[in-house]
Amino acid sequence: MMLKPVIQTCCLLSCAFLVQAQAASPTDPVATVNDQTITQQEYDNYLKSRNEQTSGKSAPDEQTVLEELVNRELIRQQALRQGFDKVPAFTQKMAELRGELLMSLALQDYLDKHPIDDATLKKEYDQRAANAPKEYKVRHILVATEEEANAILADLKNGKTFADLAKAKSTDPESAKNGGDLGWVSHQKVITNFAAAMEKLKKGELAPAPIKTEFGWHVIVVDDIRDMQFPPFDTIKERIRAALQNQQMQDYFKELRTDAKVSFVKEKALEAPKTSP
Prior knowledge:
By secondary structure, the protein is an alpha+beta fold. The chain folds into 3 domains: about 30-40 and about 65-85, no CATH class; about 95-130 and about 235-275, no CATH class; about 135-225, Chitinase A, domain 3. It is built from 10 helices and 6 strands. The chain has a 4-stranded antiparallel β-sheet with strand order 4-3-6-5, with helices on both faces. It has a two-stranded antiparallel sheet with strand order 1-2. A hairpin with a 2-residue loop joins strand 1 (about 30-35) and strand 2. Helix 5 (about 120-130) crosses helix 10.
């Protein structure tokens, strides 16, 4: 008796789904090495870890992953035959790994139980955006000595143009060819002394004295000032989450210390940060 086309199609789809469901079982074997089974779960875990470590590269084909798993298992079995699992270095390393894993699980559990919602992230974002530093469109002329810098200030007061002097005398070749222009910068992008002098100036103002840095002596002028263009919320949301989670962990360490008895044996240990895990 012939099945109707629709029934045939449904049967075929059902069989396909059944095969896929069976193949996806974590305990299903994908290979055996000297009677040692490699399961689907081990395959999936290894593939995930491999992809995380080689982010951006093309995904390997299934056979390549299987070959790598087989090679790893062969090495593991050989190490056991040679008794490497009983040497002190192995025991010590396993103890360290166990400790690291326990700490990781405990911290992750704490973070999972204290999630940071989008409203909190947005509030933190708004605070950061409101306190974003100014940006300055600044030009400079860099020379080796204070005397040279003062001579340039004198030339500017006598009517010579900043751009012409920068092209003729600045030892910073990149900005010199653009009349000393450094573009838009904030205090985070320039050296401390330079930033301090720059932030005291108003739009269109020339610094009244040269500024000394590790690169030499600078004559600077601020052409314009604006609020920093803060990145959109969605592009830095996860960075903000990571920063807040880091603060959560520091608070957690302090919380744990309130009920803990801690004493330092070595004198140097007294200098250790009290928020360390």
